[in-house]
Design goal:
Number of strands: 12
Radius of gyration: 41 Å
Strand content: 5-15%
Helix content: 40-55%
Distance between the termini: 116 Å
Length: 782
Amino acid sequence: MPAPIRLRELIRTIRTARTQAEEREMIQKECAAIRSSFREEDNTYRCRNVAKLLYMHMLGYPAHFGQLECLKLIASQKFTDKRIGYLGAMLLLDERQDVHLLMTNCIKNDLNHSTQYVQGLALCTLGCMGSSEMCRDLAGEVEKLLKTSNSYLRKKAALCAVHVIRKVPELMEMFLPATKNLLSEKNHGVLHTSVVLLTEMCERSPDMLAHFRKLVPQLVRILKNLIMSGYSPEHDVSGISDPFLQVRILRLLRILGKSDDDSSEAMNDILAQVATNTETSKNVGNAILYETVLTIMDIKSESGLRVLAINILGRFLLNNDKNIRYVALTSLLKTVQTDHNAVQRHRSTIVDCLKDLDVSIKRRAMELSFALVNGNNIRGMMKELLYFLDSCDPEFKADCASGVFLAAEKYAPSKRWHIDTIMRVLTTAGSYVRDDSVPNLIQLITNSVEMHAYTVQRLYKALLDDISQQPLVQVASWCIGEYGDLLVSGQCEEEEPIQVTEDEVLDVLEGLLVSNLSTPVTRGYALTAIMKLSTRFSSVNRIKKVVSIYGSSIDVELQQRAVEYNALFKKYDHMRPALLERMPIMEKTATNGPTEIVQTNGETEPSAVEPKHPPPVTQPANQANDLLDLLGGNDVVPVIQTTMPTKPASAGGELLDLLGDLSLSGIPPMTAYNKNGLKIDFTFERANPNPNIAVITIHASNSTEAEMTDFVFQAAVPKTFQLQLLSPSSNVVPALNQGTVTQVIRVLNPQKVSLSMLTYTHKGSPVQDLAEVNNFPPQSWQ
């Protein structure tokens, strides 16, 4: 059989291939020849064939059929064969394949070989791909070589020990005696690998960490010698003596000094010396300085040293290298919480990084800028960040807008500034803000009573300029609906009022309804705003016409609202002013989702809970509930509490079975509830002098053998009516009908009481029941 081509010739041939297909054909042809040679047990050219196979493997072609040939080369006595065999084993084998276990005996023999280079090959292979089983079997040989006087073997044995510890951590103590003399070695290679080994042991074991803290003075001495030593061509890199060893020692010092006062004190001086004496004109010096900064920040260093570290990072921000600037911004972001004042000194440099062309640097600078915002610099920082928001790429706008909102909410110097800032964000990046920005701004505006006229005027002007930013349009529509009368009357004192007529305001809102830019949610805001203006403007007929048009809209949500508003105009016009009155002060109860308003009118008044001024929301409850829930979002009805709080009753009743003014003379009593021995009867009478107030007296009796304690009766009615529950005569219902508990309910302009809720304790067990009362006597509503 002819001699196979050499590796160099194969590389030259493959490089002449013009297409991928031609290259594959060459590779397949050569692989076939190599397989034939392997089958014939050709020992002469096995080393050459495996070398070619490794090159093909590096090109991405399959070479697994050469694994056993690598083992044969390892078993060879020739160094050249062993070298290629071990290289092939490291590339083609890993611990997931059982074949690698066949190497264990060969590696053990080679670790005890008389030639240091063969021992080095075995150590490299074990440290690269040794499995946990191999590491257990060969850890003793590695530990012996770690104690040898040969520096060539010691550095390789130290790295191999690192791999053994990672695979089998319980073998760590085996190497502890061998580490005693490693740091006294003069050879930099041994020192470097020894520091790596000590770092690995300290990271994996708290006991080892405590044990090696006594080595801090020795490490400090080594580092000092490196700094003070003169030029050494063997170790010099860009004028700095062995920067790789310096970086490794600094990392180990960082681990040893963390949360330890004595160790930190011992290394403070050398860290200051490294920070001040290291040359920064080359990247090598910057790497050492960066590692020094990280060490200073992690240990319990002196305050002056921490300021020095932050100043180094500040100098990094002025570097022309983008990587160094990015590293500095990332490090400052980690330290800003602990050393806020020191980082503040570099605020102007950090803000300048917002103008950088590199997107990674801009993002880090933006995050750091928001971290630097406080009550003292809020105005200046917001000015810079809003300018950044105007000019930044779309990918930054959402995060930047969110950060401005949070900072403004936390540090706003005044409500006007707060409102102006958020409106500026909505004008600039309204399409990128979070969903909760609209209800949050509405809540802020509502609570700023003195700013209502100014806010509605500003928003009206913004609406005239641009209706493409939907969150801004939604807030503006809400404000115009609430405070349109202030806009038309020109009551703004903060700036020159504008002259606006009612028709002009309605023209703008109607334009939103027909605009292609408006989303369905925005149209819902606009329609509700127009409806609310029916109680603030005199153009009621025009508003009726607009509302009636959308009663046949193809948008189901819009159609639903229009139909409800039409019904309000036609059948319940007397209720319209009360329903559409101005929203009260809001109490923010959630950060996401609808903002609720809680309004209480005294201890005996209903606690009415209304949702915010809404976009239209589909109600899951009975359709009869929709008309009365004109303002929107939540299925919540008033709940009247007596002596203890309970959960709100759900709005599930026939809320539209409305009653007119009651004439309660001659109305027979009725049984509202009779279950589990508890019976509740209602009796009716008319209050004087107001005939619109119905007085309902409940009589609760207990036919069981045990008394019912903690008795609480509660009632809920539609939102538009007022209900007053007086205190009950007792909270204990006597057993065996030996007495009754009475309680008076007063209803103003009553509708049918839709739900009754009662809770009591019977025989030691709490009972809660919900009953719907819908069988009132006909005289009470005819």
